[in-house]
Structure formats: C-alpha cells, structure tokens
Design a protein that fits this description.
Layout lengths: L1 H25 L3 H9 L2 H9 L3 H9 L7 H21 L3 H35 L13 H4 L12 H7 L4 H15 L2 H20 L4 H28 L4 H7 L17 H5 L3 H6 L5 H16 L3 H19 L6 H26 L4 H6 L4
C-alpha cells in the first residue's frame, strides 16, 4: 500500500518535475556568480547572456546597450514570471492554488513599492527635494488583471488606497486610520503581509498530508523570517512593545516549530536591536543573527541582519531539495531559488553600473 501511495505521489508531480528539471540545472552556483562579479563592467552583459538561453533571448530583445541596471532588472523579472506561469500551468487543484498565492506575493511587493514611493514623495515635498525613481514592478498584471502600476499616478497614499482593488483595498482601508495617526508605512505593509500570509496558509492547509508537511516547513520559515525582520525594524525605529505585537504576523513564531510566541517575549521587550537579538531563544535564527550583529553595530543598518536571514533561508531551501526529489518542495524550492538568482543578478548589475568593487559586491550576493 505504501508503495502504491508513493507511486501516485510521484506521478502527480512527474509532468511538472520534468519541466523544471532542466531549469534547475541552469540555476547559477556560487562559482558562476563569482565569475559574473569579477567580470569587467564592459563584459558583464555578454557574460550574463552566456549563462542561459532564456536570459540571452530576453536580454537580446531588450536591446540593451552596456550595463543598464534598471532595464536588466525589468527583463530578468519577466523571466521569473515566465517560470511561475510554467509551473502554475503544469499543475492543478490544491497545488496550483498554493502556487498562485505564491505568485501573488510578487503583486503584493509591487503594491508595497507604490506605497513606499508615495511616502517618499510626501517626504521630499516637505524637504524640497525629488529623487524617487519609478518602481520596477514584477510583470504580473496580465495574470491577476489588477493594474497596480496605475496607482503610481495617484497623488497621495490615501488615493492609492482608494483606487486599489480587493483583496488589498479592504485591508488597507482598515489600516488607514492607524497610518494617518503614526505616518508609518510599516502599518500598511504589515496589513498587506498579513493578508497574503493568511491566504497562503489557507491554501497550504488544503494540500494532501504529505504536501502539507513539506509546504508548512518552507512557508513557516518564511513567516518566521518576516516576523523577525518586523521585530528588528520596529526596534530600530523605537516602536513601543505593545505596537510591535500588533505588527507581527499571527502565523509566525508558531506556524513553524522553530520558535513560539511566548519565547519571543524578551526580544519584543528589549531596548534595542542588539538586545533583541541577544535575548532571542536558542535557535538557528539567533545563530545567524548573532554572527551578523557586529556588522549591524558597525554600519547601523539592518541590511547585514536581513542578508543573514536571507542566506539562512537559502540554505533551508537547498536542504529541502536534497530530500526526495519529486514533491511540492521541489516546485516551491525551485521558484524561491529562481527569485534569489534574479535578486543576485540585479544586485550585481547595479554594482557594475555604479563601479562597486567586486569584494563589496560579493558581500551583497546571496550564496
């Protein structure tokens, strides 16, 4: 009986696994990323084109001239969405529903980018400066049929919310009074995070037992990392303990088994970022954050801590893929690895355009 069940599970993923297997082999390893980092700026575009046929095709059609980081990012994001659509179309039922919500995370990122841009415009109007660039969106509008890009034409955050569509409009309207009181963009971002995390969890719970166990491990880690960054961001901004608890996702610190809400009471009550890390319960999260703490204290920036958590997540995904190869973890893992690759390539492109030294660039690359 067990053998029959395993055979059914394999057959369920055989088609999509066959389609992503070749793409998995094209994902760049640390050696290839290092080669791109070390490449001269004038050779970077041609070297990038040589990595995969898909990149070469899209970058050629974009008619790029040299290292144009913004155009490169737009082009690479198109390839990422192509990969999402490929796996979505290759699956069905509850698995497809989960993957659609994973894709919708990128739509949420687009909306967050609009909100941040509008907040920056308000600040710049007050200071008499104007430096904000238009956000570079993930091209998902044709799939979801919601025109997030049009919201850039709104003249205020309030009008962005008014012109947005559900499921976002409802949660943003609920968060608007608190935003107007505090003027913290975090309030609106948290409302969006809570909506999408709840939707993902709901879809994960509808999976089969085996798929659910694997998906919960990955998604639970994502929720935990999101909450850790919310906590650290709040500490860096001096936000009070009672407010921090309102911002934390209800699914984090409990959805996965690494942490629980009670164990985080001391970090939430800590005076600052460093104390919050030191007071965390023993866990892999604390280990990676502690290793990065000296860089945070030297730079007074959350970036080293965020990068440390991102690298931990990368290791988690790679470990998931080392298990039995044909399951939902293979699909989710591939998509996350593809996202990380695109992020790395965009980071390298920006550094090349701005003549950042190779060693400094490598510190920002997730490997």
């Amino acid at each position: 009986m067990r053998g029959e069940i395993e055979a059914m599970a394999v057959s369920k993923y055989a088609y999509v696994y066959a389609r992503i297997r070749a793409r998995m082999s094209e994902l760049m390893d640390e050696r290839r990323l290092r080669e791109l980092v070390d490449t001269r700026s004038e050779d970077f575009l041609s070297s990038l084109m040589d990595t995969t046929a898909a990149y070469k095709d899209k970058l050629t059609k974009a008619a790029l001239v040299g290292v144009e980081a913004r155009k490169i990012e737009i082009t690479l994001k198109e390839d990422l969405i192509d990969q999402y659509l490929m796996v979505i179309k290759s699956t069905g039922g509850a698995i497809q529903d989960v993957l659609v919500e994973f894709l919708r995370r990128l739509e949420v990122k687009n909306l967050k980018a609009v909100i941040r841009a509008k907040a920056a415009e308000v600040h710049e109007i007050g200071t008499g400066t104007s430096t904000a660039e238009a956000p570079m969106f993930f091209p998902v509008e044709d799939f979801f049929k919601r025109r997030i890009s049009r919201l850039t034409e709104a003249d205020s955050i309030e009008n962005v919310i008014k012109q947005s569509e559900n499921p976002y409009k409802r949660v943003l309207e609920e968060a608007l009074p608190e935003y107007e009181k505090s003027k913290r963009v975090l309030v609106l971002e948290d409302a969006l995070d809570e909506e999408i995390s709840g939707a993902i969890r709901e879809k994960v719970e509808r999976l089969s037992r085996a798929d659910k166990e694997i998906a919960r491990k990955i998604v639970g880690t994502v929720f935990d990392l999101t909450n850790l960054m919310i906590l650290l961001r709040c500490k860096s901004e001096g936000i009070a303990e009672e407010e921090i608890r309102k911002y934390l996702l209800p699914d984090g610190f409990s959805f996965d088994f690494n942490l629980d809400a009670g164990a985080m009471n001391d970090p939430i009550s800590a005076e600052n970022v460093s104390s919050a890390v030191q007071l965390m319960p023993a866990s892999a999260y604390k280990e990676v954050l502690t290793e990065a703490l000296s860089y945070y204290e030297a730079e007074k920036s959350l970036v080293p801590l965020e990068n440390a958590l991102s690298r931990y997540f990368l290791v988690t995904i790679k470990n998931t893929l080392r298990g039995y190869p044909i399951n939902i973890g293979t699909i989710i893992g591939f998509l996350y690895l593809k996202e990380i690759e695109i992020r790395n390539l965009c980071t390298i492109a920006v550094c090349k355009e701005n003549e950042v030294p190779a060693e400094e660039t490598m510190k920002m690359v997730m490997v």
